[in-house]
Amino acid sequence: MSHSTLSSAQRARRRFALSGLALGAASVATARGALAADAPAAPAQSAGPIVLHGASPRLTMHAIDTFHGAAATGLRIDFSRFDGQGYALLRSFTVNANGRADEPLLIDESYRAGRYEMLLHVDDYFARKGAQLPRPAFLSKVPVRFQIVNTAERIHLPIQFGPWSYTYSRGS
Fold first, then answer.
1. 3-44: per-residue pLDDT in tens?
2. Closest by Cα among 126, 117, 146 to 65
3. Are 160 and 167 in contact (CB under 8 A)?
4. Per residue in 68-87, is it b (16+ CB within 10 Å) or e — as a string?
5. Residue 54 clears pLDDT 80, i.e. is over it
6. Does 136 sit behind a cis peptide bond, omega within 30 degrees of 0 on the bond before it?
C-alpha cells in the first residue's frame, strides 16, 4: 500500500509507531553506553549508620516459615547475650502474627555491642502446627548467632526456616 492510499489516521498511527521505535532504540543505545562507561559494580555496603525516619538504633527480627509459606506465628525464641563464659538468657518471647517480636529486642540503653544468640525452637513449632515430618526432627533448636559492633546502626534480622534448613541475614 502506498503512502498516498493511507488514511490520515493510518499515517498518524504509522508515524507514532515509528517514532516510538526510534525513541526506544535511542534509549537502549544510551543505556548501553552509560553501562559500558561505568566502573564495575561494587557490593552494596553501607558507609555509615542506617537511619530510618529518625528511628533510634535497635535490633529487630522477622521469622518466616518456608514450609507453610507464612509468618512463623507462635515460634518461641530464647534471646541471649554472650557474657564471656557462655550465652546468658536475656528473655524468651513468642513471635507474633506478623512473624516479629512485639517490640525491638534491643533499643536505647539495652542496645550494646556484643555477641548475641536467638535460639529458635523449630521442633516445638512444627509439632504445634501438626506438620507431618519424620521423627525425630532433622532440626530441633536452631541457633542464630551474630555480633553488634556499631551501636549507631540499626540491625534487622530476617530469618527463614523450614524443617530441613534455615537462613538469616543482616538487614536494616
1. 567 677 777 777 766 666 666 666 666 555 555 555 555 555
2. 126
3. yes
4. eeebbbebbbbbbbeeeeeb
5. no
6. yes
Residue 117 backbone dihedrals phi, psi, to 5 degrees = -145, 140
Q: How far apart are CA 32 and CA 29, in angstroms?
A: 5
Question: Which residues does residue 70 pair with via DSSP β-bridges, in sequence order?
Answer: 65
CATH architecture of 58-168: Sandwich (2.60)
* Angle (nearest 5°) at CA 56 between 51 and 62: 80
Per-residue CA distances from 18 to 23, 31, 77 (Å): 9, 20, 61
Domain-wise residue ranges, the chain: 3-37, 58-168
Q: Which residues pair with 115 in a beta bridge?
A: 147
The single-letter code of the amino acid at 138 is F
Number of C-beta neighbours around residue 94 at 10 A: 14
- Burial class, 2, CB count within 10 angstroms (exposed 0-12 / middle 13-18 / buried 19+): exposed
Q: What is the mean pLDDT of residues 80-101?
A: 96
Q: What percent of the chain has pLDDT over 70?
A: 73
